[in-house]
Amino acid sequence: MIPFLDLKQINLRHEEEIMQSISRFLQSGWYILGKEVDQFEQEFAEYCGTKFCLGVANALDALTLILRAYGIGEGDEVIVPSNTYIASILSISANGATPILVEPNIGTYNIDPLKIEQSITVNTKAILVVHLYGQSCNMEPIQALAKKYGLKIVEDCAQAHGAIYKGQRVGNLGDAAAFSFYPGKNLGALGDGGSITTNDEDVYSRLKALRNYGSHKKYENLYKGVNSRLDEIHAAVLRTKLKYLDDDNQKRREIADYYNAHINNELISIPKIEDDSPLSHVWHVYVVLTEKRDTLQRYLTERGIQTLIHYPIPPHQQEAYKELSSHVYPISEKIHREILSLPISPVMSIDDAVKVVEALNEYKENL
Ligand SMILES: *Cc1c(COP(=O)(O)O)cnc(C)c1O
Asked: In 10 A of CB 342, how many CB atoms?
């Protein structure tokens, strides 16, 4: 069986070092907002090239708090891709603002910059970009639009830790960015975790209070904040795992390169690369398109290859977003109907990638 992602093996590779970091945490006797979070914030800011980083409980909170820190709420509109994980959109609704869905490019799966401008109105306050599947969005035209209309750019980097667009890491391409350290992400904790990166000192300061009951000073509350903090134990483990992130991403690229070069079946479309630099993609998942997706998935399961679907139902067709159900997003709908995520991870062998490609190249629809 070729697993989609062997998470246990990913963490056990560093068992000794992870145990040491947990022991260091335990010996400190400090559990919430201490040295490990401080250090991790500095190290992750440095890694992303930003002035600031703040640990929070998860990426949904990170996105929600960023929009709130920019004062985005009732009556405001935020542009967001129609093809994303639901959390990107939930963060907008959570603030009482209106998500305006914009279609992706069918090849890269990322928001199509050419379709953004027609969706901008007097109420638009921000563009929430998602570097989906690990690939940086085509940011230059988006940055130009944000400048022209005075909009904030919020990056959802939950799938793209370490991706580099034109020499800069994601998380440093807009006004503020959200990262997830959910265990299955490219940089994963041993539970939930998240962070915010930004170069904006005002917003950093507001967010630092917002994540901690709205308080800078214990028992003095400036805002009606929330409790959304990265735990010390997760920060300690993440400091260890951050050291391996670039290597891990490189291993993912080797698998993706093999798939890109060898998948050769006219029934299956491979993903397109947005930028000519291989560093712009960290391959959180490797997603192909095929007309009879369920048939291909069943065929691969029979050949001992585990696949997943990211994601089966588009946001505008979710029960939670009934108000969007009259809208039609044909590209997004086609993507959700036809996508399949192949196995890829830093612990997958090229031998296994060879087997996946053999199976794909032998696939016929009438099997
Ligand atoms: C995982 C994910 C999130 C949410 O991250 P959590 O830390 O689980 O809240 C948000 N956006 C995208 C694109 C994701 O993949």
From this structure: 27
